[in-house]
Design goal:
Helix 1 packs parallel to helix 5. This protein has a single domain, classed as Rossmann fold (3-Layer(aba) Sandwich), CATH 3.40.50.360. The chain is an alpha/beta fold. The protein has five helices and five strands; from the N terminus they run E-H-E-E-H-E-H-H-E-H. It has a five-stranded parallel beta sheet with strand order 2-1-3-4-5, sandwiched between helices. It is globular, with a radius of gyration of 15 Å. Strand 3, helix 2 and strand 4 form a beta-alpha-beta unit.
């Protein structure tokens, strides 16, 4: 399998940078090829999404949604508004994964209607293959987390992709 990992965080040394590195390492260790697109350090022209069998989005959830750089990338790769008229824009993608962090807690995110998860599971997934599997790996309450909790989340990321 060939996975396109799309990372969207402006600071490479951040916890999200460690999450991205862990995801890439775990997918590679599972025997798959990885193309990495860092939206803050490379251009979309450097990676061909048509070659991907899997799409992995790694980003922080800010204000309940996607970072602007990731939203822009989705707007250019999926030219029709997501969820309006699903056209299977990228039918070759059979696996979709999101690895995200939330500064707030799970209950607050649920009270907001889980907008990021809804966008991916209902909108983006409908533009992929008809049997595309979605993996959602999220850490909530990052702003109040301990080093041990962050380490446990990194281990969870590894386990999630080891099964691929």
């Amino acid at each position: 399998m060939r996975a396109l990992v799309v990372a969207a965080h402006p600071v490479p040394e951040s916890f999200n940078g460690a999450v991205r590195a862990r995801a890439v390492d775990a997918i590679t260790a599972a025997g798959h090829e990885v193309d990495l697109l860092d939206l803050y350090r490379s251009t979309a022209a450097e990676v061909d999404i048509e070659r991907a069998d899997a799409l992995v989005l790694v980003y922080p959830t800010w204000w309940g949604g996607l970072p602007a750089a990731l939203k822009h990338w989705l707007d250019t790769q999926w030219p029709e508004p997501i969820g309006v008229r699903p056209s299977r824009t990228h039918p070759g993608i059979g696996r979709l994964a999101v690895v995200t962090t939330h500064g707030s807690g799970r209950l607050r995110n649920m009270a907001q209607g889980s907008p990021g998860r809804r966008l991916v599971s209902r909108g983006l997934r409908s533009c992929c293959g008809p049997r595309t599997r979605l993996d959602w790996v999220a850490m909530y309450d990052l702003d109040r987390s301990t080093e041990a909790e962050r380490g446990a989340f990194l281990d969870r990321v590894t386990r999630s992709f080891a099964a691929w």
